[in-house]
Amino acid sequence: MATADQLKALIKSHAEGDDSRFYSVAMQVAAHAARGGHGRLAEELREVIDKAKAGAPQAKRPVALVQPRGELAGLLTALYPKTRLSDMVLDGGLRARLDRVALEQRQHRRLAEHGFDPARKLLLVGPPGTGKTMTAAALAGELGLPLFSIQLHALITKFMGETASKLRLIFDALQQTRAVYLFDEFDALGGARGVGNDVGEARRILNSFLQFLDLDDSQSVIVAATNHPVLLDEALFRRFDMRIDYSLPTPPLAEAMMRTRLARLDTDRVNWRAVVRASTGLSNAELVRACEYAAKNAILAERADVDTKSLVEALEDRRRTRGS
Predict the structure, then answer these.
(1) Is the model's pTM score more than 0.85?
(2) Are 138 and 87 in contact (CB under 8 A)?
(3) Are 77 and 206 contained in the same domain?
């Protein structure tokens, strides 16, 4: 029979949706039964576990606002990302912080038992194309949650009352449906001083957001991303559990990113030192697009390899496209 600790571990892992841990503890129970002289029971347990692992259905997605109704339909877009943090090429410090967020979210019930809340209000700061939006998708995929992107152009109006009521709808949704909520280009809201002719109007919109953010005690994850942190009101920064800064990739990260994106093709003829020099100053997203362009050229030419010349040309094309 299972020990008390094993039973508690089984219940906790099931409640947290941690299948890997659940099956691991179940195998420990089977081993414990075998050591106790219950060989037949141990064998039956192992067979049940093996069948369950082989035929385990995909985790059910939460019932969410897949097709938001009413006013929410114009404020939110809903996705179920398959992206994971392991799909991103990140420097060690940044990866460690995101892994910590994911860990705290997975263990939110355990933290709550001790009176603590997981980190769930994140401010992502950095140049365009450095992975901020992808991070929101990766966190959603990692946690098995939907990703709701807030359409700020529909949210912000010149009438304070309308914007405040729309904000309330979104924060009500945070309470009703656990998900990752992305406020992209957040400076449009956090520094919305260009809306209307009245600066006081923008201040009241910001104050409404701050109040909703302070009062929010949902289990949802709020991700605010901005390319222009200098435009944000100082009062916003202390409302977030964590500020995470992004930057253009370093040479080692640029090489790792391009190798990963071209992993299905032969890159033995690539002079990576020359390619990395050509990639200087380009963002993560621009490197990915350049690799995809070079890869598609190779495929269309019925080749299985990418060489230095084609990859450097693709990078230079990206640089010309952005006008630098």
Answers:
(1) no
(2) yes
(3) yes
